[in-house]
Amino acid sequence: MAGVEEQRSDPYLWLEEVTGEQPLEWARAHNDVVVERFATSDRFSELEHRILAMLDTDTRIAYPSRRATWLYNFWRDGAHPKGLWRRTTFAEYRNDNPRWEVLIDLDALAEDEGENWVWGGASVLRPEQSLALISLSRGGADAKVVREFDVATKQFRDPADGGFHLPEAKSQIRWIDADTVYVGTDFGPGSLTDSGYARIAKRWRRGTPLSEAQTVFEGEQGDVLVSAGYDRTPGYERHYVGRATDFFNESVYLLEDDGSLRHLDVPSDSSESWYKDWLLVRLKTPWEVGGETYPAGALLAANLEEFLAGARDFEIVFTPDAHTSLHGYGWTENYLILITLEDVQTKLYVVRPGTGSWVREPLADTPPMATTNVMNLDPLEGGDEFMLTTSGFTTPATLLTSSVGGSSEPLKQEPAFFDADGLETEQFFARSDDGTMVPYFVIRHRDHKGGPGPTVMSGYGGFEVSRTPAYSGASGMGWLERGGTWVMTNIRGGGEYGPEWHTQVQKANRHKVYEDFAAIARDLVDRGITTASRLGAVGGSNGGLLMGVMLTRYPELFGAIVCQVPLLDMKRYHLLLAGASWMAEYGDPDKPEEWEYIAKYSPYQNARADASYPPILLTTSTRDDRVHPGHARKMAALLEEQGHTVWYHENIEGGHGGAADNKQMAFQATLIYEFFIQMLMEP
Q: Hey, which residues are catalytic here?
């Protein structure tokens, strides 16, 4: 609860009451203004219809999740806006029109139960695949209801008859066997962390009440979360628990049968995993151990049992360089697959494990200016087979099946949703304030290279999230087809050049993220690609914070800004919803020495009535229980009071993703492009 002094200094605290009658009335009134201004034209309706048709069409690739011989898929289209959870066999999936076994019709379920259910995922019990734990949210929130589902009967199991069931919370639940799960949820007062996640992990047996579940591990209230799980690899079965002390640091322990813990003594900010005999450790910061110093971004391997016994002899599987980082990795039955980024373009490698012989070799050719990812690795039951998906900014996705040592075979091809004839992709580098060269991609028509034109640049810059080339039918239809230029930035804070691309801009160095984005904006003008008055910017969540900083610190660089589900009040972000979990990224505003640097960029505290800001569209969701809608609400109200040009739209449902179904997604996408068309293309 905000104190009296804080309420006096912040007249818009009342907008933090998420479902209060007055704040919702305020939001709906602003929605009406936005709809009237941007969403009533024939142009808007035509684009919205095209985007919705793309989202609903059955010609899209039905991406599967592989579990041995079964391929599972969650599918939404015009006839099933909430979606179908279904499965088929690999042999059937190869057909042009595979036959799917529908397991759950979410539209029918929502209608029968009178709930606005949004799919939250399924955890299928392996290897039997006879039971599943289904997560459902109301309106797209992070908090979910978990219910056990019988795959054979296609019915939810009644809790009164022993079915597992968790009420709405930010829970974690994992199978141990058919009658036992690990669970972390809201067990009552004191059971959650300050971030709203589970503080306690328990083992819960079928037929017993949740209150009698056995505690296996407890963390501290100031932690982010505690979790437990079970590795069922035959012959290598292991129970484990994890304690995340902040967003980037976690201690992992193997849980013995007697309840004792064996700590995996690796750096807490590293990513560790194991498969059979092998322990893999990806470093985020340099590590000096066993007489060696290993660099940040390296991937190390060791024998797990020998490591637990005290040995510290590592094989180096991957070492980064100035241009190359490790983007991802995973196991087939006999090999380790590596996905690397070389100047933000993917390359694939295969590694055969073995003492002294972790040598990598190219796995498959990858196209330039595109992203190729490996998916559906199933080392326990899938041998050395896997799937590949590849796409670029103007190239629709292709799904292929492949295997180590074998050739790749196309399975599915996504159709083109916009006219890409004449569109070209280029990569440039801008020099940031401290001399760092920062990459970005420019997508535009070859005929528009003669002079500056309307341009939109997107950015994120946080949490080591890498942004790579990908096909976007919505931006193609809404912007590129109309003659606009699209720019994707790879500013620091992401992971495009390994973990140090992120760690060098945490907390006190956060300003470098914003300097990178501003440097690219200037570079676009210097290269003659656009002008400041015709340059727009868009970002969401942490990228929404980026947009707020661009508005308040670099307003002269932009002609329009779209700020989605943003953090903006950095004085109170850690007190709202999951905000406490992000203090390792931004800092703690309650500490004077940390608030000193946060205060310099926090958009809500830096908005000024005497400044000249470009027009801004702020969007959020009432059901966003990750980033509080109060950030966007309060910023909109403050900017209005100061006399700036601001529009605000709040989707009453949709969660942090901003939309609960395809119709809402189509509306929001169309709204963004219509805003930029009016602000940057029209006089």
A: 541, 656
